[in-house]
Amino acid sequence: MRVPSPHFQRSDRRPGPGPAGSSPDLTALPDLVHGRSRAGPVRSERPVYVDLLPPCNSACPAGENIQAWLAEVQAGEHERAWRALVADNPFAAIHGRVCYHPCESNCNRASLDSAVAIHAVERFLGDLALEQGWRFDPPPIRSGKREGDQPGASAPGIVPNPLRPS
User: Fold this and answer.
1) Residue 106 lies in a domain
2) CA–CA separation, 31 vs 160, rounded Å?
3) At what angle do helices 118-132 and 78-86 cross, to 10 degrees?
């Protein structure tokens, strides 16, 4: 029978019961009764989806959706890119030449390699549309009816409503 060496006696390996807090390797149990409505992790903040524009879109003085038509150009769909572009700015060829392009100074790619030449792509799309003879879609036919053409549909306090008793 083997006798344990004096270095590994039971009392050295695991401390016995003693006064609370005497053992440095034990963490105090959390108080689950006071201060909280339930046990376990409780989230006080929830993730919120925020749809932000890229810096080029927010810097564009014409308010163009740059990422939309650049994606179409990258896919090779030049006419679809032009249609997306002229939905916000009908003067693509002119604007591509005269705009001081603040979108390029705010481009995310500037820190990677160089900014995308957005004004050059816009000019290219405008010139290609002129060369190919692309035309704007005709405006929708108006029915003659407008929203608010109902008796009493005016904003209260602006126009007196003859149907409403005073």
Assistant:
1) yes
2) 65
3) 110
Q: Is residue 5 part of a domain?
A: no
Contact 66, 57 (CB under 8 A): yes
Say if 20 falls within a structural domain. no
- Please report how many Cα atoms fall inside a 13 Å half-sphere around the Cα of residue 159, on the Cβ side: 9
- Give, as one character, the DSSP assignment of residue 156: T
Q: Is the pTM of this model over 0.85?
A: no
The model's pLDDT over 74-101, given as tens digits with 9 standing for 90+, comes to 999 999 999 999 998 889 889 889 989 8
pLDDT band of residue 112 (cuts 50, 70, 90) is: confident
Lookup result for tokens 């927010």:
58
Residue 55 structure tokens: 């810096």
Q: What are 128-161's pLDDT values in tens digits?
A: 999 999 998 877 788 777 665 555 555 555 555 5
CATH number of the structural domain spanning residue 79? 1.10.1060.10
Domain that holds residue 111: 55-132
Residue 128 included in any domain: yes
How many domains is the chain built from?
1
Closest CA to 68 of 52, 55, 57: 57
